From TrEMBL, chains A, B:
It comes from the Bacteria. InterPro entries: HTH_LacI, LacI/GalR-like_sensor, Lambda_DNA-bd_dom_sf, Peripla_BP_I. This is LacI family DNA-binding transcriptional regulator. SUPFAM superfamilies: lambda repressor-like DNA-binding domains, Periplasmic binding protein-like I. GO terms for molecular function: DNA binding. Keywords: DNA-binding, Transcription, Transcription regulation. Signal peptide: none annotated. CDD domains: HTH_LacI, PBP1_LacI_sugar_binding-like. Residues 9-63 form the HTH lacI-type domain. The keyword Transcription applies.
Length: 340, 340
DNA sequence: CCGGTAAGTGGGAGCGCTCCCATCCGTGGG
DNA sequence: CCCACGGATGGGAGCGCTCCCACTTACCGG
């Protein structure tokens, strides 16, 4: 470092070459109005000739903005969600920023050192806003950013009431739809393979399950609930437990597709036919989903819309710095395939 | 944007509160020597009291450095390599930067718009150097960056002679080792499932195959070479072709583990025993590898070392701006499991 | 007792840009 | 023919920091 790249021309040099003032060149570079067309062309020629590129540090310093936003992943996101979720969010966020001059920066926060460094980076003004991939309950990052007054949007939430803007899928609603569908299909002994109970998203999906039972007059039985950790293996194990406890089970709602896939295997191993003996519905439908056999009926999370919405909210907060946090819940969609 | 976060204190304000000059505060903030301990403590107290965080734009502007590097992925990397490769590289790069004040920024370049934006970002001085994930032959990005005088290190190379610093695995050597191992095991009709012939990495692995044959006195036969695209499915197809052409085949070297996995399936379908009838060796051994049945003998790419080396070279270039590009080839390792 | 040296410190001079106001020029109406 | 007005333009005043040099002070040896 400390090295200077050679001959990076400055605004002033462009102005000199074009025979105009600094202000005019700045206006041309920033595509601002109020420059005569002939002047604009002269300046553009000078810019091209010198290969001028604006110094972004100077622009930031003078303009009080960075024209960049960060999308932060924690170590946990990194493994837990695997590629499809991550890819889809990143792509939709990227797409949503295409028409802006904003550069998207992905950053990985794996340790306290890295968190600290990132906070200094963000508070230091290198980004105008931060998007947080799903955060864990104990993650101090959202509040650190909020306290620093940085526009921040989270994907998902850590609890029922967040004091940070977030976008989330309608987890409860999606689960409710799934279970309602099972009930309408005449199933009445419906097991649940839930996620880790300390995760809010898992709580919501479980709540949706309960909410669906009530109007149908079916009683909630906690023996029908088994907890998993969103992994395929945990789904397999949970399904086995469930069958042992309730051989009469005629349907299962799994809080993730991976767990549903594990459940499918366990059911096959137990000689149950799907969906004849036991109907199965999953949750997520990340694209491209690894196809199950038979193809899984599931609740689709609107990832593309989530990414897009996060960007919209972030840009709005960057623009206006609203007083209140906003919470957006996006609808899920029940995708009927062959397991229910 | 255009918004100002409230009350961000400046160096000057800290200096005033601590009753010292700007220079002294700067020295404390940057952990520079030449400040009396008592003074240092006073200043640190003032910093804490005001919650001072350095303005990085100002620092960049005055200090001619960004304290950040970018790791660029193109759309192609994104899909082609999937998670394990990507994850391991990112982690090792991250680890290698832990002890520096350098922030790692992952950026995704999917279109010309995004490429242009990134180049402006990089040339604008927001990063001190760039790491490029594997690049394709036609990718103009490396040369754009090189021309801009930005320290740049590529993972892999686009051709035999690159005018950009790169780090690569010894693809030819790894392939040679694999095939030599097969020959030593008494196999002499060894098929190859190669990668796309327009990719240099595929050429190298194929070259290694040929180089191993010669000293063993085995003649190269092009009918033993089938081309794949690194996907499991293409490996399956290639294996079928190979068996049709050469029923007497007694070994296969696949230029990737995915293709080897496909080959394994095809062999099983054809009723061949592995390794008794046909030995199989793959290439990559990305962790965590999806286990094959039987466990695959393969050539391990030293991803961790590659990431670490890339960072070392980049930091060196940032420091000294050497005249010549450097090319580092890291050794692979033949991992013997059950298929050969 | 004094010059000499080193350690510690203060602050001027930018870094290259944006913002904004003063200025200039051309035009149209009175 | 003069003045007022608005669009186009020039450039001063910073933005908050680092770099570096000048300055102060304390302490050393002669």
């Amino acid at each position: 470092m400390g090295r200077q790249r050679p001959g990076t021309p400055t605004l002033e040099e462009v102005a000199a070459l074009a025979g105009v003032g600094r202000g005019t060149v700045s206006r041309v570079v920033n595509n601002a109005a109020g420059v005569r067309d002939s002047t604009r062309r002269t300046v553009q020629r000078a810019i091209a000739e010198l290969g001028y590129v604006p110094n972004l540090a100077a622009r930031s310093l003078a303009g009080h903005r960075a024209d960049a936003v960060a999308l932060v992943m924690t170590e946990t996101d990194w493994r837990l969600f695997g590629e499809p979720f991550f890819t889809e969010i990143v792509h939709s966020v990227g797409d949503a920023l295409t028409d802006t001059p904003v550069q998207l920066l992905l950053t990985l926060v794996r340790s306290d050192t890295e968190r600290q460094r990132f906070v200094e980076y963000a508070r230091g003004g290198r980004v105008d806003g931060v998007l947080l991939m799903s955060v864990h309950a104990e993650d101090p990052l959202p509040d650190m950013l909020a306290k620093a007054g940085l526009p921040t949007v989270m994907l998902g939430r850590r609890s029922g009431d967040e004091s940070v803007t977030y976008v989330d899928a309608d987890n409860a609603g999606g689960a409710r739809d799934a279970v309602t569908h099972l009930l309408k299909g005449g199933r009445d002994t419906i097991g649940v393979i839930g996620g880790p109970p300390d995760m809010y998203v898992a709580q919501c999906r479980l709540r949706g399950y309960r909410e669906a039972l009530e109007p149908a007059g079916v009683e909630f039985r906690s023996s029908l609930v088994v907890e998993g950790d969103f992994s395929e293996e945990s789904g397999h194990r949970a399904m086995r437990d469930l069958l042992a406890r309730h051989p009469e089970l005629d349907a299962v709602f799994a809080a993730s597709d991976s767990m549903a896939a594990g459940a499918l295997n366990a059911l096959r191993a137990a000689g149950r036919r799907v969906p004849e003996d036991v109907a199965v519905i999953g949750f997520d439908d990340f694209q491209p989903a690894r196809p199950t056999d038979p193809p899984l009926t599931t609740v689709r999370q609107p990832l593309e819309a989530i990414g897009r919405t996060m960007v919209r909210l972030l840009l709005e907060e960057m623009e206006e710095s609203p007083a209140a946090w906003r919470h957006v819940i996006l609808p899920t969609e029940l995708v009927l395939r062959d397991t229910a």
